[in-house]
Amino acid sequence: MHLPKHVTLKEVGPRDGLQNEKVHMATADKVQLVDLLSQTGLNYIEVTSFVHPKWIPQLADAVEVLQAIKREKDITYAALIPNLRGLERALQANIDEASVFMSASESHNQNNINKTVTETFPVLEEVVLGAKAAGKRVRGYISTVIGCPYEGYIQPEQVLRVADKLLEMDVAEISLGDTIGVGVPTQVERLLEELLKRYPAEKFAMHFHDTRGTALTNIVKSLEMGITKFDSALGGLGGCPYAKGASGNVATEDLLYLFDEMGIHTGIEMNAVLEAATFVEKKLGKPVASKQMAIVRNERSGQAL
Amino acid sequence: MHLPKHVTLKEVGPRDGLQNEKVHMATADKVQLVDLLSQTGLNYIEVTSFVHPKWIPQLADAVEVLQAIKREKDITYAALIPNLRGLERALQANIDEASVFMSASESHNQNNINKTVTETFPVLEEVVLGAKAAGKRVRGYISTVIGCPYEGYIQPEQVLRVADKLLEMDVAEISLGDTIGVGVPTQVERLLEELLKRYPAEKFAMHFHDTRGTALTNIVKSLEMGITKFDSALGGLGGCPYAKGASGNVATEDLLYLFDEMGIHTGIEMNAVLEAATFVEKKLGKPVASKQMAIVRNERSGQAL
User: Fold this and answer.
1) pLDDT average per 10 residues of sequence, chain B (305 residues)
2) Gene3D superfamilies given for it (chains A, B) (predicted)?
3) What CATH number has the domain bearing residue B256?
4) CB A247 to CB B291 under 8 A?
């Protein structure tokens, strides 16, 4: 296999994970979670979201969390930003990076953002320009890049259309999201073949949910195609409120197991990640979905016998 | 991706799954389970095991189950056979195929079979000769082909040594088992590269457990290397009694989702498999581990709201 030697994991658990959990984590616990994540070797943490609390009440404490976390140098602390009002608050809370977002699928975009794809571009552009004027790096998320809960399979051309626009706005990178977790490696290959005809692999990160169990297969295919940045969430947190049955992001610790065993360097310590995942289990009051944590629980219960 | 157009799933749930479940399924329920599986489009079902009930009490009713199931033509009904005494009983119960088994790892073989690898060969050869004399096809399992709970990583040479012997005995195919579910695609590639230097891909089936979440990644790599036969267990049943934390076989329905979406033909109906998995959940009194069944449960609970 032709594989990269180093990859970067971008931790989205505190944002993409917690925003979809029914239990609302206390602000102090979120702060402690981010601080634990800062000790794992991760160099990117998406801490929270500035989407209006009416839509995401779980993350209404975005400012408080960003102000209370202990920041480590060499770690980028990012937040999701829907519009200029959100950007303003995020800049006051001193984010390192702004993430803008929209969908490749017209109907998912409409349901999620209440605008057509075309109407969304200028809103994102305002945020991109504003963030860059403030000296911040900008990341663009494209959701539903393979499947949409309303439209089914999404053609690579639909993704290209949005990627072109975001890269015209000069975002630093695009995270391609299989938001409802339906993709398989043949589809990932087809999508990336189209995108990589036009842009270098460094422009993209892959963001997989594990609804159907295929996330790691898609990550291996992406790796083989030269992608070196992957979003994941501690404990496989999250889901998608608009897609029934959707489970969470691919779990950071499951991705880490795969990379460690394949000899691909991440700079992340498994034990530190498992410690943070154990903290999340305690605070959410339920077992998380990852395979590595299932083993941890099993070993602990064995010791208790 | 260069992929085969057709693959065969070999259902091992009634044997490799149920032998490791704490809840002992009633004989009539096992019969009903096999009968449900016979309606899915599967053409291979490993029904039970003739290992002594002292070791596997869950499958003490091997003869009764084999005698009560409704056999469909075009389906091979197989059983695991440890020795000549087991073969004798299995032939009386009219099995279609005999599976013999041993480990690539010396210490796992010792723990599982209470013999060295070298001592095991003549025991297997007796069974192979006896089964073939009775006109039965024989399958050979090699366990711990990537990792061993006692020895760690297993070199391909250790697997080759056992494969050479089994193929000298003229078994029809060998199922290569990542018994404790620790493997990753680079290791699968390394193993298969060695084996396929010497033997055609048709001689091998892959048997993955999903302990670490890597089973489907290993299956995609195997597919890319020309393997077209895969063992799986309905609902991801099973585990390994000698490997703490080990979860079950890769789930038939998760494998089927992957193949269906990749456009690889299996001849198996997803809905029929989900029906059989629902039956298993009811009889074991717990949710099974597959991603597809998690979605089914989620959708049902949504409907009930």
Assistant:
1) 96 93 92 98 98 92 97 97 97 98 97 95 98 98 96 97 98 97 98 98 97 97 98 87 65 98 98 98 92 89 56
2) Aldolase class I (3.20.20.70)
3) 3.20.20.70
4) yes
